[in-house]
Amino acid sequence: MREPTFLILTALARAPMHGYGLITEVAELSGGRVELRPGTLYGALDRLADDGLVERDREEIVDGRARRYYRLTDRGETALGAEVERLSHTVRAAQARLSARATQRPAVA
Amino acid sequence: MREPTFLILTALARAPMHGYGLITEVAELSGGRVELRPGTLYGALDRLADDGLVERDREEIVDGRARRYYRLTDRGETALGAEVERLSHTVRAAQARLSARATQRPAVA
DNA sequence: CGAGGATATCTTCGCAACGAAGATATGTTC
DNA sequence: GAACATATCTTCGTTGCGAAGATATCCTCG
Predict the structure, then answer these.
(1) What's the pLDDT tens digit per position in A5-50?
(2) Is the CB atom of residue A65 positioned under 7 angstroms from any atom of strand D?
(3) Is A94–B33 a contact, with Cβ atoms under 8 angstroms apart?
(4) Where is the Transcription regulator PadR N-terminal domain (chains A, B) (predicted)?
(5) B60-99 pLDDT, tens per residue?
(6) What count of other Cβ atoms lies within 10 Å of the Cβ of residue A38?
(7) Would residue B109 count as lying in a domain?
(8) Chain C bases closer than 7 A to any CB of the protein
């Protein structure tokens, strides 16, 4: 699972959202570092739906424009949880290596 | 940057290593979750070398077999640090969402 | 001694996710 | 009426990875 997909699931963990809403939400979530393109977004949503991690929710018409909402499934929640677990282990390992390295080879001696 | 690449940089943060050593080291680092294949490993090393994040270190002959060591460059250390920073933000955001969701929709009511 | 497994390198090829780009359409703002 | 924000979706190229295998040496076990 790559970062855009991970962030889409994370965004949907709070509440069902529609595509365009996900673009802005993911941008916020990531501190502006990830700006989803439509190709990435809709490709990921289709894939996640195929995998049963998200589902089509309701559809709304707001100001004459359709909004298609997606929601996280239970399987999606489980998958996201597993990915978080995995990532936090990896991050901790890397942090430990980097601080050990800083001790061994201090930038400022 | 994807997980195999991230783990290769993390492994090299401790000390220079050769390819085969990286395979076992990354497996350990990841708790056995990531088993590098040669195609992944040498492809990543070539790419990282092109990007200046790792460098060829010394070469040793041990028991008649060549060992080509790679080391993390300063740029590589910086890149790894940035990636760790980025990931830890993302992970924290996801953890917050997941626990909020658990409060809203407890699995055990 | 021969087979198999561990150590060690590297290449080829296909796939999946992403990113760039753009098509389409409505509403709002200047 | 031009430009921008909202909202959908498609096409196509790139990239990193994974599967598979080629090559070679050393060690262990029967």
Answers:
(1) 999 999 999 999 999 999 999 999 999 999 999 999 999 999 999 9
(2) yes
(3) no
(4) 8-80
(5) 999 999 999 999 999 999 999 999 999 999 999 999 999 9
(6) 10
(7) no
(8) 7-13, 17-23, 25-28
